[in-house]
Amino acid sequence: MVKISDCSLNGTFPTLLVRLGCMKASISSIILKECLRSEKMAQLFFKYGAMNSGKSIEILKVAHNYEEQNKPVVLMTSGLDTRSGVGNVASRIGLERTAIPIFDETDVYETIANLEQKPYCVLIDEAQFLKKHHVLAFTRVVDELNIPVMAFGLKNDFRNELFEGSQYLLLYADKIEEMKTICWFCHKKATMNLHYVDGQPVYEGDQVQIGGNEAYYPVCRHHYFHPEMNKEVNNEK
Ligand SMILES: [Zn+2]
Prior knowledge:
The protein is an alpha/beta fold. The chain is built from eight helices and eleven strands.
């Protein structure tokens, strides 16, 4: 509940309230709305989930919802993610859009600050691949430019270690939300990502591996350590 006394007003509105008597209620509601608006500060969101938890679909949905109201948004994604070409947000159901690619050397604060039109929101796919300096720059986009930033990504890699981007988003985000999906092998919630190379589970190696006959599956903790090999083979695309 926002009280009138909480707002930084110069005294004009309280005086009006006394003079206008019967209009008091409607003016109060206007003041309340203004107060709520001024207090609505942008926030940094981190929405994480295992593989196939619908992160890209959610980004495309949020972008669509803003743009339906003529509110422009900016889509960004890691320049490392080349599965659907550099600078693309692609969902498994076939929808995709172009996005600004983020490379290690990209100054994301300057990129957003120099846009001709201030966006209503910045949406980031594959946020696990962000560097610490990117996450810190996005906190400035939120705090200095007052633009909400929503970052979507994996929390843990196939070795079950935090990605750099996820680590700093967990530390700096205002709001953290888990996007849920179920285990590839059972009906428990998937909290980890199992990596297969040539049909065998892999638990060690470089965090980012591109190419090769590989696949990632969302799994529960039990099946991360004890995958059902036959079932995996049967389901493998
Ligand atoms: Zn399971």
